[in-house]
Amino acid sequence: MDEFASARDADLRALTEDLLRVDTTDGNEAPAQERVREQLSDLGFETYEWTADADALADHPSFPDDPAEIDVAGRPSVAGVLEFGDPDAGPTLVLNGHVDVVPVARESWSSDPFEPTWGERADGTETLTARGAADMKTQLALLVFVAKHLHESAEGAAADSPFDGRLVIESVVGEESGGIGAAAAALSNPYPFERDAAIIAEPTELRPVTAAEGCVMKRLRIEGRSAHAASRWRGVDVLPYFEEIRRAFRELESERGESVTHPLYAEFPVPWPVVFGTVAAGDWASSVPADLVAEVRIGVAPGETVAEVESAFDERLAEIVAADEWLTDHPPEFDRFSVQFEPSEIDPDEPVVGAVQRAMDRHGLGDDTAPRGATYGADARWYVEAGIPAVLFGPGSIDEAHFPDETIAWPEVLTAGEVLVDAVREFFD
User: Fold this and answer.
1) What is the pTM of this model?
2) DSSP 332
3) Cβ contacts of residue 193 below 8 Å, gap of 6+?
4) Consecutive H or E run containing 214
5) In what order do the strands lie in the sheet with 291-300?
6) Helix (H) or strand (E) run with residue 187 in it
7) Between vectors from CA 332 to CA 329 and to CA 333, what angle results, nearest 5°?
8) Beta strand 407-409 with 126-129: parallel, antiparallel or unpaired?
């Protein structure tokens, strides 16, 4: 067992279990954040807390224009800061994680999703299962003890710290709903110092991710005409129209997969996915469905903008409408909702990326140091927009995120801790 693992394993397990037991679905993060802040304070961090300003977020094009649609009340983000040597003489590095999780369908789980369950794979690998195990309370707890381990090691090394700088551990809220806490931190700095770079500990399978996809969220409303099922020919059924629109959007998805290319996304069979996540139609089994509402997530490639991609899908819908008399007279509504995710990308030669890569190489991960792209969005985009280079790196797989029986391999968590300890040292050196 390596240095970090042997020193921090027990404490890391305890904090991870504490956080996993709290239901932190959207808007319910405060109790867990209180636990994080208490832990940071007990470990000697200088703590900070901020709550996003809905009016300020509404002024940003990624958020709804109406502040009332942005849920910020009772949702604090917290951070802890440790200083090394002369903190003003060195860089400031942010280690960021989000405390919120997505909802669960309990009937799909084989155990209580908010009770951490330890298990073992066939090969003997120890695992941890709970909502947030992979995405990403385990990583959040890991960052706390990475920072503490570095600080204690620096203090014990010599009378003077071997390096200068600040390390910031952030536990932010609302990432799953668009980045409430991180957006506030990036748009309005909550600290009395500037930040030079960030590592976002998303589940990247211990690979550095330098490009994250964006998405545009749109709500489609189609109007038809109701009629008795016994004389359905008198009605206008919305379902064939929906099927036509969905088919056209899938065709555009395929076209974009061929025409919009990026070297970090060649491995994905569908680089810019289009998903109709919710569909509701009709109101009675014996009536022709006369209304339909569907919500769609449309992928946005690094280098594109949400507005550009939105326009392409608006135009494809307009072509369908123009070719049909009913739709021309009753045009569907196709409007944004929720928060829009702009894509983000940083230069692979950024110092923070190199620090992670050198640390990976030191721990036997040299074959996996090439930067990757991710087809999901992440809080990195807020920091990149603010001029703070941010790389994603952490244990666990995105394939486990939002999934029943969400699981992470514990040895991978400990390996990530070793890598992050050395990555911080490399960055500060």
Assistant:
1) 0.93
2) P
3) 87, 88, 92, 166
4) strand 214-223
5) 274-281, 291-300, 214-223, 333-336
6) helix 180-187
7) 130
8) antiparallel
Which amino acid does the sequence have at 32?
Answer: A
Residues 42, 45, 46, 50: is their CA dihedral positive or negative?
negative
Percent helix, strand and coil across the chain, each to the nearest 5? 40, 20, 40
Cα atoms found within 13 Å of the Cα of residue 345, Cβ hemisphere only: 21
Residue position matching structure tokens 């990403």: 136
The pLDDT tens digits along the chain (429 residues) read 478 989 999 999 999 999 999 999 999 999 999 999 999 999 999 999 999 999 999 999 999 999 999 999 999 999 999 999 999 999 999 999 999 999 999 999 999 999 999 999 999 999 999 999 999 999 999 999 999 999 998 876 555 668 899 999 999 999 998 899 999 999 999 999 999 999 999 999 999 999 999 999 999 999 999 999 999 999 999 999 999 999 999 999 999 999 999 999 999 999 999 999 999 999 999 999 999 999 999 999 999 999 999 999 999 999 999 999 999 999 999 999 999 999 999 999 999 999 999 999 999 998 999 999 999 999 999 999 999 999 999 999 999 999 999 999 999 999 999 999 999 999 998
What domains are there in the chain, each with its CATH number? Answer: 3-211+342-428 (3.40.630.10), 214-336 (3.30.70.360)
Backbone angles phi, psi at 336, to 5 degrees: -65, 150
For residue 208, give both structure tokens. Answer: 């550095």
DSSP 302-331: BTB-HHHHHHHHHHHHHHHHHT-HHHHHSP
Residue carrying structure tokens 């087809």: 375
Q: Give the DSSP H or E segment for 257.
A: helix 238-259
Count of other CB atoms within 10 angstroms of residue 164: 16
Beta-bridge partner residues of 165: 84
Residue that has been written with the tokens 């995105």 in this structure: 398
The answer to whether the CB of 112 falls within 8 A of the CB of 215 is no
Q: Which residue has the tokens 């208490």?
A: 38
Tokens representing 229? 């099922």
